[in-house]
Sequence to fold (480 residues):
Amino acid sequence: MRGGRHEYDDVMMACWHGTRFRTGILLFVAAFALAAALAWLPAPAAAFKLVSCPPGGAPNVACPAPNAAAGGASPKPATTWLDRHLGAPWLSLLIIGTVALSEATRAGMEHQVRRQGALLPHPVRPHELLPWPLGPRAVPLLAGCLVLALGSFALGAAAFSQPTSREVAVSTPYHEHGSFSYSAPASGGIYDGDAARTGQPIFPNLSKTVDLSFDYDFASAAASDLSGTVWLAAVVGDGSGWSKSIELHPEMGFSGTSASISGTLDLSALQTIIDDYQRESGLHPASYQVAIAPRVLIHGSLDGNYFEDAFAPALDFVLDQSSLHLADHAAGVDPLTPAVNGATSDSDTQTRDISFAGLGLPVGLARSLATTGLLLALGGVFAVLWVARSTPPLNEVERIRARYGRHLVAIQPGSLHDRDIVEVREMDDLGRLAERERLPILVDEGTPRYYYVRHGALLYRYRLLVDSPLPPDLEQDLFG
Fold:
């Protein structure tokens, strides 16, 4: 075996730049950095919080529909260390990084043993630390695993730095519509027919009662399951703050999105209330306001959320000394068909996407791909290292065959007897000459073994003295 400072430096550089050592260190750093980032990232807030909205709350508020099976109970947050960290991805990455470091440490131990005098008989390239049949083919395998690990690390860093979903505001529009109608039987023949109809004035001298009706309808493109109550009354007032209600129909329930209610206003009873007011107050206004006031309370499920609303339009009349007629109203507004548009305010959870390598990926899928890619890369590295550890190391003959196999030509031992022989110190020098000049390497497989390259009038020869790069005892300690 050769000795000396030159050979020692070769071994030191080979071990330091060995594939197992470099790959183990790089994977450990990548796994530890990602694990540290994941460990310190704050947990994303809950995307949607259920809020109970019992009947009687604020109108036009959408709340999550109560779930009878779940009982409205929300899951308890994790409070123990195990709950918070046992399933954390950073813990798995830290374990993987530790294993990678241990493999790198094994490569360093090999370097330390070789320092103690076990010197290889030739300069060693990084891939030559791996035995046959891996050899040079292990380099692209490990390089591919490293590229996959780095890509997975970058994807994981982008995916785990943000929540998988986001909360967006969602509104559900709806429309409520009402329709008033009335008729008042009358004598005297001043109307087309025997009664005053919707929109016409009513004369108390000719009519004693007014039949009133109100129709309600709720419309929405979203799915709904609604019910409610409706009530009808008349309210008389003097415009200065005094008012009195007259119930025309008691509160009644309905199911669905529409309801109808009707009642009769007794004009004689209305006049009695006015007379009592004038007698008790001493006031005699020239006219009074009379409002037909239905009130609709609707509630149920709208678009999967709890919903409730109140619809209370009014049809205003003016009662003077001669008639009961509709009050003036704004231009373009029909008091007989009140309507209102509304919308519920809600929130919805949507999947968050990230842009990676020109592709839009859901964050959850990106996390899975990053974790899978990192595990595959680590698995590939450890598979190569396992084969390297379980396979005997290359001896010099196998190394030469692996490196220059396509140039080797076996000859009969002792068949070359040239006098002009140039002894070559390193087999790689002989190999470079053969590759540059495209010449065959002639192999004399006797003892000792010779390798020849004939170039012009000179015959270059490399003499192989030993077949194993390490003594048997050290070889057993390293690879046994």
